[in-house]
Design goal:
This protein is α/β, with parallel strands linked by helices. The protein is about 25% helix and about 20% strand. It has 10 helices and 20 strands. It starts with 11 loop residues before the first strand and ends with a strand.
Length: about 450
């Protein structure tokens, strides 16, 4: 549950052109969650759990029926705000603030505007069957259609109202837009641009705005659009559950292709529901190891944040075999990474080219003064995540920026994130340094500091 006394709200802000949010003035790696709930108190409970683990923000889907409105929709057929819906969400903003958390609200998406597959179009107040203006859900994407104009008017009212909350982090104006049947990329871009225009006019504190596509979209022009201040990436590890590998590849590829910061909006071992044959990897006995590896990979990928899970953060609550008990089992999964990254100034951090010997997998990130890295037993992979008793005699060679000749390497226990298990000093050889990893089981992390 939320803490009984107010926690000081840190100052979080993003400056255009920077790769990280600033935490109390310094670029920092953040931790986030995707809460869910059957009722408003469930959302508050998960916010309290996030606070207890020193997370920084929560990303919330504003179409949840648990927060009122008309089956979760925040507008009436005439485009007015559903007051109970807005009040419940604003109460959640207040609850998050008490817990020292920021909120990233997400709006719309395929579930609201599809009329095939799993969807809630039947309940959408803009559906003409409910008295709204749209006979077809795709009218929301038709330029200057009555449906689109009414939605933009409603969205502006919401942004104007909610932007008064000082713990608003950013806006995800439409989510996974490419999954809406019949929409073209150009229509998606136009709609996202109109939504971004609304945010930039209505939010007087000028928080960043983005919109998202589901993975494998092929919508490259959309991701290049100025409507996206940063990319909200939704990586799910298809087809094999190797989320850490996938995260490292995707984040760095998106950074290179689009020259924008990458925020992990949501992620998981699989997008399929945990009760399905395709999604069962999520609930396998050793899945927690895969999730822990993924969060370490978040940190060294170059992404703005980590954790950012889907089923484990909150949405597992909707499955009777899982519920809040299962969500609570994952509440501390990011704890060692939180401890390890605390106080690290990420200013100018970039992916570091690295070559590792054959028994380890991982990555490094840093600048000319400091490098952080994480490597794991390369054989520890799904579905069983079996690991060798000990990994020995492995090396990592890093291409280091700057000119510092001597570097101090501290190796950390990844189960605590604070315990230094050994240290060594290495010397630059040309543009690289080579470090020999100490013996370890499962994984190892390190911090490397340039010596004067």
């Amino acid at each position: 549950m939320p803490t009984p006394t107010r926690v000081p709200l840190p100052f979080l802000a993003w400056n255009p052109g920077e790769g990280y949010f600033r935490l109390n003035g310094k670029p920092a790696f953040l931790f986030s969650r995707n809460p869910a709930g059957w009722k408003p108190s469930d959302w508050a409970t998960i916010a309290g759990m996030a606070h207890q683990q020193s997370d920084h923000f929560v990303r919330v889907g504003t179409s949840s029926a648990s927060m009122g409105g008309y089956h979760g929709y925040g507008y009436t057929p005439r485009g007015e705000i559903q007051e109970d819906w807005s009040n419940n969400w604003e109460n959640f903003f207040d609850t998050a603030e008490v817990n020292g958390l920021y909120v990233l609200p997400i709006f719309g998406g395929w579930i609201d505007w599809n009329d095939t597959g799993y969807n809630t179009w039947r309940d959408n107040p803009f559906n003409s069957s409910n008295g709204g203006p749209a006979g077809d859900p795709r009218e929301i994407f038709k330029k200057d259609s009555p449906t689109q104009l009414l939605y933009l008017k409603w969205f502006k009212m919401v942004v104007t109202r909610w932007s008064a909350h000082k713990n608003t982090l950013a806006w995800e104006a439409v989510t996974e837009v490419n999954l809406i049947n019949g929409i073209s990329q150009s229509e998606g871009i136009y709609f996202a641009e109109q939504l971004a225009k609304v945010v930039r006019e209505a939010d007087t504190l000028h928080r960043p705005v983005t919109s998202s596509v589901a993975d494998y979209s092929g919508w490259t022009n959309f991701l290049h659009s100025d409507a996206l201040d940063f990319i909200s990436l939704h990586p799910y590890a298809l087809p094999d559950g190797k989320l850490d590998i996938y995260l490292l590849q995707e984040v760095r590829q998106y950074m290179d292709l689009y020259h924008k910061p990458v925020l992990i909006g949501e992620s998981g071992l699989r997008a399929a529901t945990p009760d399905s044959a395709d999604g069962k990897i999520t609930v396998l006995p050793n899945a927690r190891t895969g999730i822990q590896h993924a969060i370490w990979a978040d940190l060294v990928s170059g992404a703005m944040n980590g954790r950012a899970l889907w089923w484990e953060d909150g949405y597992g609550i909707y499955f009777p075999a899982l519920g809040m008990y299962w969500v609570e089992k994952y509440t501390d999964v990011e704890a060692p990474v939180v401890q390890f990254s605390a106080g690290v100034n990420m200013d100018g951090f970039k992916p570091i080219p690295a070559w590792a010997s054959g028994k380890v997998f991982g990555a490094a990130l840093g600048n000319e003064k400091m490098v952080i890295g994480w490597y794991r037993d390369a054989s520890c992979e799904p579905p069983d995540w079996n690991m060798e008793p000990v990994i020995s005699n492995q090396t990592v060679t890093l291409t280091i920026p700057g000119t510092a000749a001597s570097w101090l390497v501290d190796f950390y226990n990844t189960k605590t994130g604070t315990e230094i298990v050994s240290s060594t000093t290495v010397t630059r050889n040309g543009g690289t340094i080579t470090i020999t990893l100490p013996d370890f089981t499962d994984d190892i992390a390190f911090k490397i500091h340039a010596q004067k």
